[in-house]
Amino acid sequence: MNIRKILTIAILLLSTIFYLAANCDPKSAEEPEEKPVEEPTIVGTWVNPDYNDSGWPDDEGSIPAKQVITIDGSTITTSQFKNVADTEPIYIVTTEIIEEWTDNNGARWYKLFTENVGPYGPVYGLAKVNSDNYTVEGNSDLDDYPTEINTEGNLYAIMYRQSSYEPIVGIWVNSDYNEVGDDVMGKIDIKYNTDGTLTSTYYEQDFATEPNLTTIGEITEKWTDSQGRTFYKMVSEIENTLFYSLGMVSSDYNIAESVSSPSGYPTVVSSDGERYVIYYRQTDPSPGRTWETVFEDHFDGDTLNTDNWTQFEISPPTYSLTGSGELKIDGDTAEDAPGAMFIYNTAIAGNYVRVTTKFRTTQNDPFEDDVDIGFLLIDDPDNLYILHLTSDPIDGTRDYTLSITRVTAGSSVLLIEESMGGTTPQISADNNYILEWENNNSTLIFRIKDGSGNVLKSISVGDSSYSGGLVALQADLNIGSSGSQSIFFHYVRVEKYQ
Fold first, then answer.
1. Over pLDDT 70: what percentage of the chain?
2. What is the mean pLDDT of the chain?
3. Does 222 lie in the same domain as 151?
4. What CATH number does the domain containing 296 carry?
5. Cα separation values, 480 from 298, 337, 363, 364, 368, Å
6. Which residue, of 281, 304, 320, is where some domain finishes?
7. Which pLDDT belongs to residue 381?
8. Which DSSP category does 365 fall into?
9. Which stretch of 169-183, 229-243, 252-266 has the lowest confidence by average pLDDT?
10. Within 10 A of 483 (CB to CB), how many other CB atoms are there?
11. How many domains does the chain have?
């Protein structure tokens, strides 16, 4: 297998702190300045991005993604944050150190007691800070003190010291890369080694358990920009060839992008760059994803099912069901025509949601005719997202782009916009295409595929403010040429990760 186009994204595998259930008085707190320490101590800021949006504090047994710990005598004060990037804690918890000791391996142990934790009563904890002062892990119990640290035990958690944390460590997935060939793979598991190198294990599919390739890489340079994104220069050897990579991890640690070359370090991370790849942090502990279809409409019959859909536009273009499993929307010669919009009547929510539609168009002039198709994600009337496929004239044809825009209280912000690339026009008449958006644990992904399901272009943006709501399908064909043209939708499918 030719692995040379695979991006070596390296991510440091870190550990998480013991679980302490929160008491019920939200407060704010300053994060203590972390200074280098020689002896292991539980004091400091501990993080695990795998716990981002884990359901804490509402779901029993879930873990806050960041905990800031101080000690005053035998009293521990813990500020707990829902996500790593958060600056305001949800709760502050006070815990008593019942006993502490250092074992023969240099690890520091803490026997802990927290009183009056919500309706559950006291919480008994056992935590261990490893001798490298980098990892803390532990168990908690509602009845008695745990006697050992057990990854399969009650309320187990593991966290990593933030001052030493490498955001690129972890399990990264992208189902678009499943079985696409030699270029990329669906999952990468990146671990930090004691000698400072990174081990990257590659799997052909995001749900696979048997690896296909393992490489060793070295971080040669690292920095953080003003937006909180972490950049890495890395070198690794693949099939006896050195590859130089420039990687970027988003400020919330949930998205990793990279470009790589055998001839030297790239200077910018761009989707147009050499061997570009994008991955998303796998935060679910299950070995793979199972997508369950919760709604599907193939537009059978000759009447739109108003139990499923509400048409939303003033003076919209003509639409009809063809009777052969297609929703037909006629083109309009008016350039400012709003197009047709159909709202799916059932609200959609969840950390993992995907909506897919297949379409084709009869536009016959690659310069004059403009296809506009997209989704609207409606949190509430004052907060929505527009995921849009559209085009502009360029060099006698049209260049199609994908974009994601957030609209808040009538004010719009373009979050990302990128050309599909390749030969224009990228959307041609009488060919099937698949348009799809996905909420992947606070990462909005928007992609277009050909009729066989091969990804033509994918863009994404991390945005934890989207919580779900109504979804609308929008389409417009602006006709600049003569004749009657139309867009045809074959189906709309809603899936949730179960």
1. 81
2. 78
3. no
4. 2.60.120.200
5. 30, 13, 10, 10, 5
6. 281
7. 66
8. -
9. 169-183
10. 11
11. 3
Cβ density class 25-59: b for 16+ within 10 Å, e for less = eeeebeeeeeeeeeebbbbbbbbbbbbbbbebbee
Is the domain of 215 the same as that of 313?
A: no
pLDDT digits (tens, 9 = 90+) for 436-472: 988 876 778 888 988 887 778 888 887 767 778 888 8
216: helix, strand or coil: strand
Pairwise CA distance, residues 158 & 151, whole Å: 9
Nearest-angstrom CA–CA distance, 190 and 212: 14
How far is 136 from 153, CA to CA, in rounded Å?
Answer: 15
Which token pair is 180?
């696409």
For the residues 6-28, what does the mean pLDDT come to?
24
Q: Residue 317's pLDDT band (boundaries 50, 70, 90)?
A: low
Place of tokens 């309009």: 332
Boundaries of domain holding 101: 44-164
User: Phi, psi (5° rounding) for residue 176?
Assistant: -65, -25
Distance CA 136, CA 148 (A): 14
Domain annotation covers residue 143:
yes
Give the integer Cα–Cα distance in Å for 316 and 310: 13
**Token pair 């979804």 in the structure block, residue:** 471
Q: Are residues 150 and 175 in the same domain?
A: no
- Classify strands 108-114 and 327-330 as parallel, antiparallel or unpaired: unpaired
Token code pair at residue 146? 């745990």
Q: Do residue 466 and residue 362 come from a single domain? A: yes
Of the pLDDT bands very low, low, confident and very high (cuts 50, 70, 90), residue 257 is very high
Amino acid at 375: F
**Predicted model pTM:** 0.49
The answer on 461 and 313 residing in a single domain is yes
More confident residue, 258 or 425: 258
Q: Which stretch, 214-218, 244-248, 304-308, has highest mean pLDDT?
A: 244-248
Beta-strand runs (E) in 142-212: 157-161, 170-173, 187-192, 197-203
- Token readout for 236 is 């690794």
**Same domain assignment for residues 330 and 436:** yes
Residue owning tokens 């595929």:
449
The domain boundary residue, chosen from 239, 256, 281:
281
Nearest to 282 by CA among 205, 370, 359: 205
22 lies in a domain?
A: no
